[in-house]
Each structure stands twice: as structure tokens, then as C-alpha cells.
Amino acid sequence: MTTQQVAEKLVAYLRKGQITEAQSELYSDDIICIEPEGPMAPHYTKGKKAVAEKGKQFASMIEERHDGAVSDAIVCGKHFSITMTLDATFKGMGRNTLEEVCVYEVKDGRIVFEQFFY
Q: Where are the alpha helices (DSSP H) in 2-90?
């Protein structure tokens, strides 16, 4: 798959809330994920299993999801980016709207790197 095709598939999965399916199909086994330092997620995660577990931990923090959106992808060479918003009530933290820019790198038809800015 081209970077454009991977980007379009990821956006489609995310818009349907199918994060697990997206990771299973599109992520490299050796994916690297970088998050801002803080309490929401580990700063550095490597490997498809570890990234999936990080996602499950984040999902377990959500008490109620109110709204969310995923932008179309902007593709440049082997990279693409999207923006995402999530309006949710978090356990013990109340209702918040999270906004982030997500940057991905694709190699051999798989996402090998992702970094989130929020």
C-alpha cells in the first residue's frame, strides 16, 4: 500500500472507532510511538502489542465519550498527519476536550512510527 492508501484506511478505521482493527492491519510489529510526557500515556512505546496495551489503558480512563472527530490526512512522501479531537468525561478528571496532531511514517505499506502532539 502507498502512504496515501495507508492514511485513508487509518482515517476510515478511526472514524468508525475501530482502533484495534487499524493497529492490527496497518501497524508494523516494531512500531514506535512517542507521546508528550505526562500522565495520559507513556512517553515512548515500542512494538504493536505494547502500543495496543497503551491504547487499552487510555480507553479504560474514559467514563463517557460525548463527541470526537478525525480530519482528512495530509500526505507528504512517506509521512502523513491528521488531527483528532475527543470530548469525553474521564474517570476522576471530569469532562475534557482533547485536541491532538498525529504524525505517522509509513514503510513497506505499514505504519512504523507515530507521534502525538497535544
A: 3-15, 19-26, 48-60
C-alpha closest to that of 91 among 54, 51, 58: 58
DSSP 2: -
Could you give the domains of the chain?
3-117 (3.10.450.50)
Phi then psi for residue 19, to 5 deg, are -70, -45
What are the pLDDT digits (tens) for 38-82?
A: 877 789 999 999 999 998 999 999 999 999 999 999 999 999 999
pLDDT digits (tens, 9 = 90+) for 72-102: 999 999 999 999 999 999 999 999 999 999 9
What are the grid coordinates assigned to 11, written together? Answer: 482515517
Residue 50, number of CB atoms within 10 A of its CB: 15
Determine how many CB atoms are found less than 10 A away from the CB of residue 116.
16
